[in-house]
Amino acid sequence: MATENQSENNIYRNEEPNGSTRFVSSRIKPKTQKEITEWRKRELVFATLLCVAEKGIHQTTVEEITSRANVSRGLIRHHFKNKQDLMVQACKYLCDDFRMHIDKNVKTNDDPWKALDHLVTTTFETPYFNDVSLAAWFSFWIASRNDDDLKLVYKEYYEWYRGYIHKLFERADKLGQLHTDLDQTIDAFVSMTDGLWLELSIDVTKYSPEYAASVCREFFKAFSQRMPK
Description:
Blueprint: E1 13-15, E2 21-23, H1 33-55, H2 62-69, H3 73-79, H4 83-105, H5 112-123, H6 131-143, H7 148-174, H8 182-202, H9 209-223
Antiparallel strand pairs: 1-2
Helix pairs in contact: 1-2, 1-4, 1-6, 4-5, 4-7, 5-7, 5-9, 6-8, 7-8, 8-9
């Protein structure tokens, strides 16, 4: 369960005594008009992610989003073109938040295997890795099959993610520590982490994030000529 002390960039919810879920903003209320505008947009995005995580994209209504964010319907029209625009921005937020989380915790100039180990830890650690993020990610991912706007968001994200991983494995390859094809290794790693995320999106009780991270570390041992420390 997240607390008020967690980062403002984390998505979280607060359970009411009656078992219902209430949206809670993690930012201190702003003072300037610019800060107020960004704060309100952030609240709408957070509320959207919570609703999508619980009901999926198509079952989520504007009324439910505004109720969760405790704002008027007109505020959505003020800050976003329409519901579709809000959904796209919420999806983009998830991707951007993950990118920021990785950039903050993984140093690409480290030993490549150490950096990959940090990447795995970051990918499956809380508070970013939580049931809301997982469920929302899965809903957007499924919807992107028939939604060009969401498809573009994921296309840009995966281009970044593959490029990021490529740098790490390429360094290991240049050091003579990778004994398989570079591109195939990257494809296998991306597919594996995607699969673990999707399985946990469907059933968060199947296994722990720590176990998912350990699966990735076993992958490194199988594909490297040097055991990660």
